[in-house]
Amino acid sequence: MRGRPAGLPLGLADPARRAVVAAAADRIVPGGDGWPSATDEGVLDDLDRAATGAHARLWQDVLDPGIDSLESEARRVHGQGFASLAPEVQDGLLAAATPTAARLRDALVLVVTEAYYGDAGRDVHVQRPAWDMVGFRARPVGARPVLPDEAVPRSSALGDLRDTYDVIVVGAGAGGGVAAAVLATAGLRVAVLERGEWLNAVQVGTDHLRNHRLSRYGCSTGPPPTGHPRSLVGPDGDEVTTAPHEPGYHNNAATLGGGTRVFGGQAWRFFPDDFAMATRYGVPEESSLADWPIGYDDLEPYYGDVEWTVGVAGDGGAHASSRGPRSRGYPMPAFPASAEAVLLRDAARRLGWEVGPPPLLCNTTPRDGRPACERCGMCVGFACHLDAKNGTHNTAIPRALATGRCDIATGALVARVLVGAPGTVAGVIAVDRDGAPRTLRAGHVVLAAGAIETARLLLASATDAEPAGLGNRCDQVGRHLQGHCYTGAFGLFAEPVRDGLGPGPAVAACGFAHGNPGVVGGGMLANEFVPLPLSYLANGLAPDAPRWGLAGKEAMRAGYRRTLHVMGPTEEIPVASSRVRLSPRVRDRYGLAVAMLSGSVHPETARTAALLGERAEAWLTEAGALRTWRAPVPTGLSAGQHQAGTARMGADPPTSVTAPDGRVHGYTNLWIADSSVHVTNGAVNPVLTVMALAWRSAEILARS
């Protein structure tokens, strides 16, 4: 069989090879059951594009030689080519137990199902037959057919900014956006420097394989796939370079609005006991568990400010026995209960559990000129095509810009914080998209780049007086890195239990956040977001379910709407050895040392996560699941979308990086307004706490 020019995968360029691949693809996803086969759905064109793109190495190493071997075996055993054989004979060859056949089969299952069940860059408004087959709807019936025009935040090039500002804010995510709004509203002149770009919903895209929920081959919200690496130190001590879409990177979105651009928006307040874990449980051996220097009451008014200013939908009376007191309710009502929420709510009541809807940063009613959520199936990991999800990009940042006292530069990466007179900083050095440096001066600098990048920036700003990094005289910067160890269980039911209405989480149990016998802390459990078909195939199918052939297709069709996933975050026990350092060998496109990550979760975290998995199984069983299975408990470094803790606050400088107000110890004008300051990361999603802390610190800064 002829193929592509030398150096490229053979792929499907040769007609004879294309026929073999077509026949094999139609055995991975056959027709004959009333639904299209793989080739009926046009997967061959997708496979051909991927042969010189995302799957080039897989084609060269596995698919090309495997297809040649498959064709040779067909002719040797049956005297004719694979494409001419009867379907059951083709199935037998693909199912052979030889290592070569197994490698080819696994690779074909991967590439064919990705093309069949994913969107492969197609228009999200075109409902695919494969999605109809399983019961997934990207948009509700009758939904608006086109994406709206979004208001583009006014931004500047780095070179066009003023030389001097009252405050420079590094990062335009949850913390930076809120801090900028509070500071500019208070009358200060503010510059916000964001390394990412402004991306509208079309630019963020709808690719099922390149998003912040499932990012196998890239992520449209950045950072760009090349030029912005990190490194991860494995258990063997070897440093491995990672790209932004790879798990070891522990990525957050890099765009104006940060993670709030694509988050699911669960807007929980931390519980009172989350601020005093060491007092309640003691300090486990080899952990760095500590109390916060502030408590729930200190943050309560700021929680309310964020809920009403940014916009949260919830039930102020829910979860009353576990949450802290509230001074006011929510500005919008909670989402109506979905079918799965009703099922799980009734089961929880039979178990004697208190449950209620989770609060969400999403419009359930029109708000600030933006519409209510239409309850689509593509919320988490994607930008909202209706602009109904409330992040800093469409709330706090426009508020800051409306004052006329805030400038924003996108594509501006801060390389270094500049030190001024003793105990002060003087500004920053940033580089633009082309690597051109610019020095900006300021009376105050607020770091809000996320726990990993804020720590990296402090370490990279070392001086003669602080050779280990700013604020790092006691070797605390970068330590205590944590995230959320997610756990839970799946349940398969006899009848469909999922109605497909987004955003997804509609019922949550908070009674396991604290007070679980025999473990330290706990977590929250809730039903999961609407899964993409590919996410369900990768993570939601029962472990023993077939993945290919008519049986695999039936497993997808029969299981998607009959499977529920209950999961939630475990409050992690921090350890000092989980940390951010500067890589001694890996540099980014600007020649800067990148963040080097290392560590693993504490054994107590794993024990607590296992307990929550048991509780999730019990909930699903009571709801009527025919069978259940647990998600594995993660044991490696946990520092992804909920990364926290690398510059934690405390009253004692030897054991912390920032004071209770968010100011770096030893400096009068260097502040941190992101999750770096978290001492512990809560038993629930942390974004509302990030925003509340940023509001509080910015208010203190403005008064000073």
Write a structural description:
- The chain is an alpha/beta fold.
- It has 2 domains: 15-117, no CATH class; 158-483 and 570-703, FAD/NAD(P)-binding domain, CATH 3.50.50.
- 29% of the residues lie in helices and 13% in strands.
- The protein is built from 17 helices and 17 strands.
- The chain has helices spanning 15-28, 43-51, 56-78, 87-94, 99-117, 129-134, 174-185, 201-204, 277-281, 296-311, 339-351, 396-402, 451-460, 533-540, 549-559, 603-622, 687-703, and strands at 164-170, 190-194, 230-233, 239-242, 355-356, 406-410, 413-419, 425-431, 437-447, 485-492, 508-509, 525-527, 563-570, 579-587, 593-598, 627-630, 670-672.
- The chain starts with 14 loop residues before the first helix and ends with a helix.
- The model has no long low-confidence stretch (mean pLDDT 94).
List the helices and strands and how they pair.
Blueprint: H1 15-28, H2 43-51, H3 56-78, H4 87-94, H5 99-117, H6 129-134, E1 164-170, H7 174-185, E2 190-194, H8 201-204, E3 230-233, E4 239-242, H9 277-281, H10 296-311, H11 339-351, E5 355-356, H12 396-402, E6 406-410, E7 413-419, E8 425-431, E9 437-447, H13 451-460, E10 485-492, E11 508-509, E12 525-527, H14 533-540, H15 549-559, E13 563-570, E14 579-587, E15 593-598, H16 603-622, E16 627-630, E17 670-672, H17 687-703
Parallel strand pairs: 1-2, 1-9, 2-6, 3-15, 9-17
Antiparallel strand pairs: 3-4, 5-11, 7-8, 8-9, 10-13, 10-16, 11-12, 12-13, 14-15
Helix pairs in contact: 2-5, 3-5, 7-12, 7-17, 10-17
